[in-house]
Amino acid sequence: MLKTKIVIDIKSAIAKAHSFSSGLGSSSSISKDYLLSELKAYSGSELHITLLDFKEFDEIEFDSLNPTILLTENYKSQI
Question: How far apart are CA 9 and CA 26, in angstroms?
């Protein structure tokens, strides 16, 4: 996956959410709304397209109609 600014920013936001939710005992998902609120510099379309790339690389499970993004074991091992 390319290391573009949006990819780096998304990974940073996911890591931030992951570290917070790990303390609560749940760390396998993230809300799309959380990403939108954390990454206001990007449009929803830009985030959506980039998340589809994450899905293609088996880093997340992502359904356009579901507000939750599931982190795969492959991705969690990178955090």
Answer: 22
Domain range summary for the chain, segments of one domain joined by + = 5-76
DSSP 29: E
Q: Do the beta carbons of residue 27 and residue 16 sit within 8 Å?
A: no
Q: What is the CATH number of domain 5-76?
A: 1.10.10
Across residues 19-23, what is the average pLDDT? Answer: 62
| Contact present, 68 and 30 (Cβ < 8 Å) | yes
Task: State the pTM of this model.
Answer: 0.80
Radius of gyration of the chain (CA): 12
